[in-house]
Design brief:
Blueprint lengths: L1 E7 L8 E4 L13 E4 L2 E4 L1 E5 L6 H17 L21 E9 L2 E10 L4 E10 L5 E8 L5 E2 L7 H14 L7 H4 L14 H12 E4 L5 E2 L7 H13 L6 E7 L1 H7 L2 H15 L10 E7 L2 E7 L6 E8 L7 E2 L5 H9 L1 H4 L5 E5 L8 H14 L5 E7 L15 E6 L5 E5 L11 H6 L18
Parallel strand pairs: 5-19, 5-20, 11-18, 18-19
Antiparallel strand pairs: 1-2, 1-6, 3-4, 6-7, 7-8, 8-9, 9-10, 12-14, 13-16, 14-15, 15-16, 16-17, 20-21
Length: 453
């Protein structure tokens, strides 16, 4: 589970900013919105408000940036991703850190980089202890080979192997060592170096970023008839007019005719890139669901065989005709983007969703959130999302420590803070106070002062 993310000198974030999922011990309501791991209570939700251009999407982008850097190295085009409100930030380190749990073990993993120079300057992994202490597992400083910490109790043969891996990595300025340790490196599953694999795997597989125009999800719920029955039942609850959801096999030529050539190439390029990584437990058959030009495509790529492609077809009541996803409203399409979060076969996942309410009626947004919470009650599942929808700012739906705000200061830098710092009464109508500007993070419209002719 996610414990905390901290960001510094990235996009609109200048100084270090944090979003924490550690619950307040003083809040009485919605106790089922917490999961206890050892002595730590972690929240299952975080809803983030803010005006347009306040930095909400940049928070989501930070999660995506960490994942992408682990998979690809510093992304092409990230040289201008430092906070550009000050000239000095161009040569200042940008810092990213995630704190999270894998099983019952708490970790802190992070790295620093001078983005304008496309150079990683530091990297670290610690095991966090319940007494506030930490054990170093590995660390890397600029210009030096990575070193193991004393907490990494490994055998002599593993130390020799690690030294070889570390020395071979020397000089890699735009790649992460944690990634390198997951590219074909050989050590037993019960090795004391297995933390390299479980940390990499959790960040890459268990943090799922969903943007408003996301073209890909790992929507496993669309792959078999039983889950399609569940999808049909769930979509009827949302009263979209869709009463049944089926799949239809199509040929690769039919897909080519439907989607732009660059999108078609991009789909299979990403699937092939994923197959070439050594992510633990990655199946030989790669499946994913893509939404392109409004239609969904389920694609299964198996070794030495043609891709198996299917698309969704929808029924409306007693109509004798099938409908494609592209025939549906933007709101219905958005629900299908999100529905796997409720029905998908996942565990210990944190969904990071930008503009969850986009194209959704407020009642649909509220219903979706209630369905998500009910489906994962008591489970190690988390939802972090940005929104403008003030009508869900309700203490019956969310705890105060689950509601966050982002706004820019006088220097145009984004600041993150929690509603919990305002200590509001339990019967307070939060949405009204928010729109009145009590908590900040709302647009301010100056008078333009136009003069008549």
């Amino acid at each position: 589970m996610l414990v905390k993310i901290s960001i510094e000198n990235f996009k609109s974030f200048d100084q270090k900013e944090e979003l924490s999922m550690i619950s307040s011990s003083k809040i009485r309501g919605n106790k089922n919105h917490r999961v206890k791991i050892k002595q730590t209570q972690l929240l299952t939700n975080a809803v983030v408000y803010g005006a347009n251009a306040s930095g909400k999407s940049n928070l989501v982008a930070a999660f995506a940036f960490i994942k992408r850097t682990l998979l690809e190295g510093l992304p092409i085009g990230s040289a201008n991703d430092f906070c550009r409100n000050k000239e000095a930030n161009k040569t200042r380190e940008s810092v990213f850190e995630l704190q999270f749990t894998v099983g019952d073990t708490f970790y802190a993993y992070g790295f620093s980089a001078i983005l304008s120079q496309e150079k990683i300057t530091g990297e670290w992994l610690y095991e966090l202890l319940q007494d506030g202490g930490a054990r170093r597992l590995f660390e890397r400083e600029e210009g030096k080979t990575p070193i193991l910490g004393d907490a990494a109790k490994i055998t002599d043969s593993e130390k020799i192997r690690f030294t070889v891996y570390s020395e071979d990595f020397a000089g890699q300025e735009n790649r992460l060592f944690l990634s390198e340790m997951n590219r074909g490196k050989r050590f037993d599953s019960d090795s004391n170096m297995s933390f390299f694999r479980e940390v990499f795997s959790w960040i890459v597989n268990n943090i799922v970023v969903v943007n408003p125009n996301s073209r890909i999800s790992s929507a496993g719920a669309y792959y078999n008839s039983k889950s399609l029955e569940n999808i049909s039942a769930l979509i009827r609850i949302f009263d979209t007019g869709v009463t049944d959801v089926k799949t239809k096999r199509i040929s690769i030529e039919e897909m080519k005719k439907t989607v732009p050539p660059e999108d078609f190439k991009g789909v299979f390029a990403q699937l092939n890139a994923l197959r070439q990584t050594s992510i633990p437990n990655l199946p030989l058959a790669q499946q994913s669901t893509w939404r392109i030009n409004g239609d969904f495509f389920n694609i299964c790529v198996k070794p030495n065989s043609e891709p198996e492609i299917s698309t969704l077809v929808l029924k409306h009541g007693s109509s004798a005709f099938d409908f494609n996803m592209s025939d549906e409203s933007d709101g219905t399409k958005r629900l299908f983007d999100l529905i796997d979060m409720i029905l998908g076969d996942r565990s210990d996942t944190v969904f990071i969703v930008d503009e969850l309410d986009r194209s959704l009626h407020p009642k649909l947004t509220e219903q979706f959130l209630k369905q998500f919470m009910e489906a994962h009650d008591g489970a190690r599942m988390q939802l972090v999302f940005t929104t403008h929808e003030d009508r869900i700012m309700d203490q019956n739906l969310f705890r105060r420590d689950e509601i966050w705000f982002i706004e820019k200061n006088a220097e145009e830098a984004s600041k993150i803070y929690s509603l919990d710092r305002f200590k509001e009464r339990y019967d307070k109508k939060l949405s009204k106070s928010y729109l009145e500007g009590r908590y900040g993070a709302v647009p301010v419209f100056p008078l333009l002062g136009f003069k008549g002719a």
